[in-house]
Design a protein that fits this description.
Glutaredoxin; 7 strands
Length: 313
């Protein structure tokens, strides 16, 4: 095929443009790698006198960010450095006290307030890792200091506080050590009961949806737990399954999927859902209560409940 002069000109112009674009992309990527190579997170080392893991964790919780430059917002675009450091930071939380966690989080966010971008970055990391239902680090108690800080901050506009204020109200409800919110449940026979009138040393609440795959897996895991099974068989524990939505046909169709030893129920008045008396950001959600209906474990895993029962016979 014979190429016209006009076609050749367009062809070579496109080649030049493509080559330039590719070169620019390579240079941009190289620049990004160079910036990342030049940056580093200067870790804090606990004093050598701190040999106890709890003492070391408490020190790190409150001094983790001492060497970090909060004015350098380029760190917000370097997740392999900053986000990894944040994960390391929250990894010490379970080893120390809630007071130290709160102190450390508030110290972090106070320092981050120097730059709005930096503050928003760290708050969003807190929400992603400590509140998102899919996060393995999810923990309301650890997220509460983040919410308290943004709600109280004089540098955050009121409009931006609306959602954190609602999340904080939910997080404050049914905290470990507090009395669980009471509600009326209805069984398949139409009989009703109240949570606070149940009598057992332990009460396991499971909020679920009937056709939820994860709920089925959790139910199977509960069945496999020797500690939970033994506690239910001996009468030491009552398991209350609660369906908080309105599709009763689906609920009735799946009644046989759940153990007959449970109090399998639904919320006829939709109080739980409409009044948000429980934070059901994920389904299923498990709570372990004591005989006085005080919350022992909130938003717990079956493994955590199993270990609690094993350690508190």
């Amino acid at each position: 095929m014979k190429l016209t002069g006009r076609f050749l000109i367009v062809f070579f112009v496109n080649i030049m443009l493509f080559g330039c674009a590719s070169k620019e992309k390579k240079e941009a990527k190289k620049a990004s790698i160079t910036v990342e190579a030049q940056k580093n997170f200067q870790r804090v080392t606990p004093p050598v006198l701190f040999t106890d893991p709890k003492d070391r964790a408490s020190y790190l919780a409150t001094h983790f960010w001492d060497n970090f430059d909060f004015k350098d917002t380029t760190f917000c675009s370097l997740p392999t450095i900053t986000e990894q450091a944040f994960v390391d930071f929250i990894s010490v939380f379970p080893i120390t006290t809630t007071a130290k966690v709160s102190e450390g989080v508030k110290k972090l966010l106070n320092a981050a307030e120097v730059e709005e971008v930096m503050y928003n970055y760290f708050f969003k990391l807190g929400e992603r890792y400590l509140y998102d239902p899919n996060s393995p680090y999810r923990n309301d108690e650890f997220f509460i200091p983040f919410l308290e800080h943004i709600v109280e901050s004089s540098k955050v506009v009121e409009l931006a506080k609306a959602r954190p204020q609602e999340l904080l109200k939910l997080a404050y409800r049914n905290r470990p050590g507090s009395k669980a919110e009471d509600f009326v449940y209805t069984t398949a026979s139409g009989a009703t009961g109240r949570l606070h009138t149940l009598s057992a040393r332990y009460i396991l609440l499971m909020f679920y949806n009937p056709d939820c795959k994860e709920c089925k897996l959790t139910t199977d895991e509960i069945r496999r737990s020797t500690e939970i099974t033994a506690a239910v068989s001996s009468g030491k524990m009552k398991v209350v399954g609660v369906y908080p939505d309105e599709n009763l046909e689906a609920w009735r169709n799946h009644l046989n999927d759940y153990p007959s030893s449970w109090i399998n129920s639904y919320d006829k008045a939709s109080t739980i859902k409409n009044n948000q008396i429980y934070d059901l950001k994920a389904i299923p959600t498990l709570y372990l209560l004591d005989e006085k209906k005080n919350v022992l474990l909130k938003d717990a895993t079956v493994g955590q409940i199993h270990e609690f029962l094993k350690s508190n016979k």
